[in-house]
Amino acid sequence: MGVKKLDAKRAVDAAVIAGKMRESGLPDVFCAELIKLAPAYNSIFRMMTFWEKADEDEKQEIIADLQEMIDDNKQRYEERPLLRHRDVEGVVRTVREFKDQLAMEIEKHGGVTAAAKKVGMPQSSLSRLLNSASMPRRLTLLKLAKALGLSEAEIATEYVR
After folding, report:
1. Domain coordinates of the chain in residue numbers?
2. pLDDT tens sequence across 18-52
3. Which end of the chain is more exposed for a tag (fewer CB within 10 A), N or C?
4. Which fold does the domain 87-155 belong to in CATH?
5. What is the pTM of this model?
C-alpha cells in the first residue's frame, strides 16, 4: 500500500474514532482538531486508537493527553522564556497563586464542568490544567478568558507557555 493510501486510511480511521468520541460527549471542537491532526501525527492517531479500547478512567487520561497534543501543535513555533534554576521556586509559587485565582474565577462561572463546556475542551483537561504544576498555554488561557468574559489582562502572566 502506498503512502497516500496509508494517509487516506488513517484520515478515515481517525474520523471514525473522532465520531465515537463525539458520541461519548466530547466537544465538537476537540474532535474536529483530532480529525485535522491525526493523519499527520502518528502519536495523536495512536492515542485515539488507545482511547477506543480503554476503560473510562484511562479514557479521561488519554483525552487530557490529546488536548495537550492539540495545544502543543498550536504553540509549536512560539518562543519560550529562559528560566534560571535559582528562579524556579518563585515561579512555582507564582504559578500556583495564578492557578488558585483562576480556579476561583472558574467557580464563579459555574465550576470546571461548565467552564470546560464553554471553552470546548474536555472537563478532564481543564481539571488537569488547574491541578498540575505546569503553566497553562497562552491559547488555552485566552479561550478560558473569552468563555468566562474576562479580559486578557485578567489572565495574563509572564510564565504562560
Report:
1. 3-75, 87-155
2. 999 999 999 999 999 999 999 989 999 999 999 99
3. N
4. 434 Repressor (Amino-terminal Domain) (1.10.260)
5. 0.53
